[in-house]
Amino acid sequence: MAQQARAIQTRRSILVAAAAVFDERGYSSATISEILTRAGVTKGALYFHFNSKEELALGVMDLQLDIVPLPPQLTKLQELVDQGMLLAHQLRNEPLVRASVGLAMDQGVEGLDRGTPFRAWIDRLEHLLSAAKNQGELLPHVQPGETAELLAGAFSGVQVMSQVLCNREDLGHRISVLLHYILPSISTPAVLATLDMAEDRGERLYASLESVPGQAAATA
């Protein structure tokens, strides 16, 4: 068990180092030697877990799919808001998340399936929206699949613009504005009035997760 735990920790350390290098230098400029130096592991240790830089990048992108469990809310639309606001906070504060999203958005990355994180994110949003529809939270015309694609695309565009303009410093505000404009077109008025879409929502959620034993490590 101890050996298995060390292997898991080594793999995690390599991914953290790779994410930091990808985040700082981009996929094309990142080198295995730089990742090895950052991780403080041998070449043999790295290649035990990953056969190439491409596999490392896929491993980092997969981290985007490991969504931290959030507390259940009274409405599914609030849970949808919370997913987006927490991701906005993580993009500002966690190199692992920034690198994962950055790789998926980088059109210069060749040979990687960059669509997997997008499809997973859309599926997650559609699941929440379908549950919201079943609970009577959505207006009659709303189609969960189409709305999920719209929200995922809008979030992606807003976070890229925020990155370019101010290194995502205002991302919480921009996502809050996005939600304030879109959600009135899909939510029933009664549910809309209850939603917390404040720009510091993600920060508050993250702080609450850190206070729960075991969750701090999952979000680091």
Descriptive account of the structure:
With 220 residues, the chain is mainly alpha-helical. The protein is built from 12 helices and no strands. Helix 1 (2-25) packs across helix 4 and helix 1 packs across helix 6. The longest helix is centred in the first third of the chain and has 24 residues, at 2-25.
Q: What class would the helix/strand composition place it in?
A: mainly alpha
Secondary-structure element order, N to C? HHHHHHHHHHHH
> Quaternary arrangement of the chains shown?
single chain
Q: Kindly state the mean pLDDT as a whole number?
A: 87
Q: How much beta, percentage-wise?
A: under 5%
- Radius of gyration, in Å, reads 19 Å
Tell me about the largest β-sheet: none
- For the secondary structure, the number of strands is 0
Low-confidence region ranges:
216-220
Topology, pairings included?
Blueprint: H1 2-25, H2 32-39, H3 43-49, H4 53-62, H5 76-93, H6 95-105, H7 115-134, H8 144-166, H9 171-182, H10 189-192, H11 201-210, H12 215-219
Helix pairs in contact: 1-2, 1-4, 1-6, 4-6, 5-6, 5-7, 5-9, 5-11, 7-8, 8-9
